[in-house]
Amino acid sequence: MNGTLLLLRHAEAASPPMGDFSETADRARPLTAAGQATAQRCGLWLRQKGLSPDYVLCSPALRTRQTLAGLLPFLKPLTTEPVFCPDIYEAPPEALLAQIQKAPPQARSVLLVGHNPGISALARMLDPTAMELDQGFATGSIGQFTAWGTEGSTHAPDWSTCDNHNLTLDTFARP
After folding, report:
1. Which stretch is the leader sequence (predicted)?
2. Could you say which of 3.20.20.30, 3.40.50.150, 3.40.50.1240, 3.40.50.170 is the CATH number of the domain covering 3-173?
3. Where are the domains of the chain?
């Protein structure tokens, strides 16, 4: 079985209140109706691909939590509670990768639900030759990466050492 890393940018969110550019207002932005539908399509897409995370990292912002809530009904029940990690909000790619590297050793599949520009930059950092990533991570985009050296293995990948040397982009989709 392959180790899988899933990067998901939150679905479309409402604009912040007029003139309020505070972090508090940004974190409180809910999904739009279209964003809610996109989150469900992402869940359906994951189910159709047979992808279900063992470990979930999610920004605590409302739009990322709502995106995760929209896709979870389409997946196998999680064996562990999602980790709502403040360090994912507005994080650079290195900080996102550091959170992924903390995934438990038994996790075969890790899902990170986050924001741009960090998600897009992390995807590009992990697989700089993937031309699909040239179009950027629009809201509701999913990048599926496979950990090298895990084909046919009965063990989960060593997430503590994952980086651009052992992860490659398999699929990039906007469900």
Report:
1. none
2. 3.40.50.1240
3. 3-173
Whole-angstrom distance, CA of residue 165 vs CA of residue 155: 19
Token representation of residue 122: 């992390």
- Got the DSSP string for the chain? --EEEEEEE---BPPPSTT---HHHHHTPPBPHHHHHHHHHHHHHHHHTT---SEEEE-SSHHHHHHHHHHGGGSPPPSS--EE-GGGTT--HHHHHHHHTTS-TT-SEEEEEE-TTHHHHHHHHH-TT-GGGGG---TT-EEEEEETT-TT-SS---GGG-STTTEEEEEEE--
Look up the pTM and report it: 0.93
